[in-house]
Structures are given as structure tokens and as C-alpha cells.
Specification:
The structure is a single chain. The protein has 237 residues and is mostly helical. The protein has one domain. It contains nine helices and no strands. The chain is elongated and about 75 Å long. The N terminus is likely disordered.
């Protein structure tokens, strides 16, 4: 399988992605549990137990996954840099010709491409980075994998708690009990739209479109969980 090119990211962009996608996973999966329990007409105590168990277990899983993914990507890039550095030492002239051709393919003239490669070749590290970026589409990530994982976990737990918030309050404020699910739906819907809008900024798809898309996906997931919970409750309870 051909590996997709790695695109350059600044630290803030990478951490924002971890926050947004961690938050989206947290709120959608937790709301699906809330909807499933509500569909099965189970008690709020069961809902809170399942909801908080999901928050911690899935939050840890997401954080570890983000950490391992970031670390593996950085290790892959470092290994490829070492291989490319060794290849440049053994085939310097051929690598220069290949890079010149790469710049020509991007629209530079032979003369301009030659000048650019000559300048880059004065520093071996810069030359290798140019080959990695322009020929192979690999850019070294310098963000912190541990911080990525921590942000994912915190975001997952924070946003995943939103569908549970009204049920927690209802434990201390009885009048909210009857409308807990409706209020949870409203809070979750607004949060999904906001997170979708942030995702739209990252992917440059448009805030409104991405917000509505995320709201629709989350709503469909919750509806499916509600229906399944309702059906199974009549079969097994």
C-alpha cells in the first residue's frame, strides 16, 4: 500500500486537530450511549454508569492511539531521513538531477531549477529535507506526541461529559429529571455544530457546512442507538 504524503503542520494546528477530533469522538460516542439507554427506558443511574465508564475507557484509548500515531509518524520520518541521507552520500549527482526534474515538473525552468538545487546542495541537511519534501511529500513533525495524547484525552472527556451534564444535575435537582434527555439533546446538538465548525476551519470546507454535517452525523448515530436500545429492551427486558 502506498503511503500518503505527510503534510506540514505547525504545533498549534496539530494540537487543535487533537482537540477537535477528540472532542467529536467523545461527544458522539457518549451521546450514543445516552440515546441508547433512553431508548431502552433504563434508569438514569445506569445511564451515568455507562456514560462515565465510556468517558474514561474510550478517552484513554483515544489518547494512547493519538500518542502512538504521532510517535510512529515521527519515527518513520526520521528513519526515512537517515536512508535518504545515506543515499545522497552515495548518489549525490543523481539526487541533484532528480530534484531538478522534480522542480521542473512543478513548473520551474531548467535554469531556475538548476540554480535552486545548487543553492540547496550547499548544505547537506537542507538538501535532504528538500528531497524529502519536494520529491516524497514527507515533512518532519516536531509536535509533542505526549501533548497530543493529553489534549485528545482532555478534549474527549470534556466534550463527552456534555451529554451527561443534565443527568448529573438532575440527581440534585429533581424538576430537571423529566426533561433531562431533551436538554441533553439540545446541548449536544449545539456543541456538535460548534465542533463541526472548528473542523471546517481546519479542513477549509466552510464552518456552516461542516457544522451541519457533524450535527447530522451525530444525530444519526444517536437515533440509531435510540432505536436499537428501544428494540432490544422489548426483546430482552
Amino acid at each position: 500500500m502506498q503511503r500518503k504524503p505527510l503534510h506540514p503542520e505547525n504545533h498549534e494546528g496539530s494540537y487543535l486537530k487533537s482537540m477537535v477530533y477528540g472532542g467529536m469522538d467523545g461527544i458522539i460516542t457518549t451521546f450514543a450511549i445516552v440515546a441508547g439507554v433512553a431508548g431502552a427506558s433504563l434508569s438514569s443511574g445506569v445511564l451515568l454508569i455507562l456514560g462515565f465508564a465510556n468517558l474514561i475507557a474510550d478517552g484513554i484509548s483515544m489518547a494512547v492511539g493519538d500518542y502512538l500515531s504521532s510517535k510512529s509518524e515521527q519515527q518513520y520520518t526520521r528513519n526515512e531521513q537517515k536512508r535518504e541521507t545515506q543515499h545522497v552520500k552515495l548518489n549525490f549527482a543523481a539526487e541533484k538531477r532528480a530534484l531538478i526534474q522534480s522542480y521542473q515538473d512543478k513548473g520551474l525552468s531548467l535554469k531556475d531549477a538548476g540554480k535552486l538545487v545548487t543553492i540547496l546542495a550547499k548544505d547537506r541537511k537542507t538538501f535532504v529535507e528538500a528531497i524529502m519534501t519536494d520529491e516524497r511529500g514527507i515533512v518532519e513533525r516536531t509536535d509533542n506526541p505526549i501533548k497530543n495524547g493529553a489534549i485528545t484525552f482532555c478534549s474527549f472527556v470534556f466534550f463527552g461529559f456534555i451529554p451527561l451534564l443534565t443527568f448529573v444535575i438532575a440527581q440534585f435537582y429533581a424538576p430537571l429529571t423529566e426533561s433531562s434527555f431533551i436538554v441533553a439533546c439540545l446541548l449536544t446538538g449545539m456543541t456538535l455544530f460548534i465542533l463541526g465548525g472548528l473542523k471546517g476551519r481546519i479542513t477549509e470546507r466552510g464552518i456552516a457546512i461542516s457544522g451541519l454535517e457533524t450535527l447530522l452525523i451525530g444525530g444519526l448515530a444517536a437515533l440509531a442507538a435510540f432505536i436499537i436500545g428501544n428494540v432490544l429492551s422489548h426483546l430482552v427486558l
